[in-house]
Amino acid sequence: VVDRFGARQELPLAEAVAQALVNHGVRLGLLGRSDEEIAVYQQVVDRFGAREELPLAKQVAEAGARTVVVGAAVLLQSGRFFLAVLRLDREVDDAALAVDAHAGAER
User: Fold this and answer.
1) Is the pTM of this model over 0.70?
2) Closest Cα partner for 24 from 52, 45, 1?
């Protein structure tokens, strides 16, 4: 489907291509090929992210959500998830301090 209709813009064909890509990503995930899985989901976002039609928006949202879940699982399995959360927490705290300092300087 992707090879044959991937360049077509008509909604029914674009929707079939998006669904085929999402399904391919799911299969790659079942095979434990997370990097390839994420890359396929990214293709969905890249190809159809700017389209406004609801069926495509649903596929883009699903691909984006699956990317986040798979990415978090990869980090969790590697032990880097906890470190990433700590780093994010520290960045949020630093940003909050900067906003507070900026607000205080304006008074």
Assistant:
1) no
2) 1
